[in-house]
Amino acid sequence: MNGLEDIPGVGPSQRERIERLIAESPSPPLARSHLLRLLETSDPASLNERSDEALSALFHLLGGSAFLSEILVGVGEPWPRVFHELIRISVKRVAQHLADVSPLLHTDPSLEQLARVIRRHKQRENLRIGARDLSFRAPPIETMNEMTSLADACLEIAYRYCRTDLEKDFGRLTVPGTDKDNGLTILGMGKLGGEELNFSSDINLIYLYEDDQGESTGGKKGKTVPQDFFTRLAERITRLMGEVTEDGFVFLDRPAPKAPGTQRPPGPIPRLNFARL
Asked: What is each CA distance from 125 to 128, 156, 194, 274, in whole angstroms?
């Protein structure tokens, strides 16, 4: 299949329209190659149903990012519907991402199930955010804020799941003398903290827990103290977010280079100790 003339169902007027959009894309050869791959999985007539604005966003993505194009190709046969639904959404905040994914937590999913869902959620959000960025429908600051909101939401989901899962092993960990959970603050450093994440950014995290006293109530693996509890929790969150699977990864937690005279704590620390660093 070397060109649009080889695709059944694409008439002369539609070919002219598509050729114009290909020519306006950042890289016409790349856009053409990715389009032909997409049309191998779906009815070419689906392009007739899309507005020029939607198709312009599509061709800017196909000609502007091999990475995002591969994600769209991976969607398979429903890609026209999926892409059209995604680009109709302008901005999504943390709460909207949580509304999309958090209901899964109530079904007691396995780690593998949750990992697959949040990775695929990130992939589709990358498509939405990337299409708006590449077609100049969103300024750079909005793109960076959106990527940061996505990372914040994924971290929140990972925290909720991993804490519940850890409590099965060691029981609840509360502030001594209360029924209140011993809280954890996940502090985003660098681009995450500055709300400047881009598509290739890692995230740099510091874990601060509320109280260093007491122990958990006990589970199938016994009891443990806060330092051990939160170290295990941070390790599970890191694996859930960063482990590479067939669906890729969510975000990688990699320490940023240390400034002279500073240090990143080796693991979770009590909040009161943070000021001493």
From this structure: 5, 16, 20, 34
Q: Return left, alpha or beta for 117; rule: phi > 0 is left, psi -120 to 50 is alpha, else beta.
A: alpha
pLDDT tens-digit series, residues 145-174? 999 999 999 999 999 999 999 999 999 999
- Measured between its terminal Cα atoms, the distance across the chain in Å is 61
CA distances in angstroms from 27 to 7, 208, 224, listed in the order given: 21, 46, 57
Compute the distance between CA of residue 226 and CA of residue 214 in angstroms, rounded to an integer.
Answer: 7
- 203-262: pLDDT as tens digits: 999 999 999 999 999 999 999 999 999 999 999 999 999 999 999 999 998 765 554 454
CB atoms within 10 A of CB 161: 22
Query: What whole-number distance in Å separates Cα of residue 84 and Cα of residue 61?
Result: 13
- Among 114, 103, 204, residue whose Cα is nearest residue 151: 204
